[in-house]
Amino acid sequence: MTRALFDAISSLLPPKTVDPRDPSSVLASCIEKYLILSNPDEDTISRIAGTEVYEAYCICCLHHLQSYVDLDASSTEEILLSVSHVKKLKSCVEFLICLGVYPYLDPGVSVPLEFRMEAHSCFRLPLVHSSSVREQNLLRFSRCLLQFRVCRAEQLRRLVSPALFLGDIIASLMQVGYVTVVRNSRSPDENTASEKRSREARQLLWKLLCELPGSVAMKELLILQGGSVGSQKVRGAVKLPPAPVWLRKACGRLLSHLLVRSATHSATTDNGAAPSSDCGVRSLLFASASLAPGVIGAPGGCINSLDPRLQPALAQGLAQILASQPSWLIGKPGTGPAVDQSAEQRYFQSIANQVSGLVQ
Questions:
Q1: Fewest beta carbons within 10 Å, which of 21, 147, 170, 232?
Q2: Domain extent at residue 287
Q3: Quick one: pLDDT band at residue 264, thresholds 50, 70, 90?
Q4: What's the total number of domains in the chain?
Q5: Would residue 80 count as lying in a domain?
Q6: Closest CA to 142 of 121, 113, 173
Q7: Would residue 237 count as lying in a domain?
Q8: How far apart are alpha carbons 40 and 143 in whole angstroms?
Q9: Can you give the pTM of this predicted structure?
Q10: Is residue 266 part of a domain?
Q11: 284 lies in a domain?
């Protein structure tokens, strides 16, 4: 079965050298070869029919990725892929992200494509402004890749690690769940469907962030905000473009929830394991410091060295985060008190207890 998957993905991936004047014809040829080898179901074929070449290619990529999830679930033993097969699988996800994710993200959401995938520059597409198309395609991508997190095969789980494509899932869910959409020009049914997709994206995102180690979740949110807190110009540092206002606010809101989550939540994970005991403040310290240039980390997850030039700015930025009042503590106008006093006290008491525990 893995041999059949290898042949299918080999037919799906474009050659290394592509004529930049007509990349769509190359993708069309790849789609034709893939459909012959993979023998997809009627639903996949009907979805491909009548679509643009780039969208059809993304549908084929999603269909192929789903094949690994199905094989992992049905196989009695852990599947094992060759090094060449894993490399092709990564390329498949990269093309899917290039063609099926970045065109649907607002400018400033996620790391710019040119920082990550130089080889795919000839396949870059213009932004898609239809909100319903963006929501549907980004959710479809996120649902597909989230399945790899529970695969038995480590090679498949690694695809959604922080070193590879975890950030793309989080960026996609943020775009669907938190972007402000003007719904006045759409029908009530379209608005209802959009709100449902937005709610699902927020639920999937929060579940994912809670399952990740605290420092990893916070680091991904800080990257989406446009860099580490207390950032300072240092030679060798990569300056990320500014994130849109809605994204910065959403990331800040999620960060403040994660800061106190360990002290206020006791739910178990899906597999019955105990919840993470990460200290929110400690996780924020590590996440912020690990984004600074010139950091030397230890195998045990500690930071052994940090550029002294960054320490004052980093400390000031962290202090501002810890002392700031989260937006979710502030009530909406006309709904009662401006601030929930008891919730505010519990929030800052949790922060104080964590800081006290770290310095003792």
A1: 21
A2: 213-295+306-324
A3: very low
A4: 1
A5: no
A6: 173
A7: yes
A8: 19
A9: 0.85
A10: yes
A11: yes
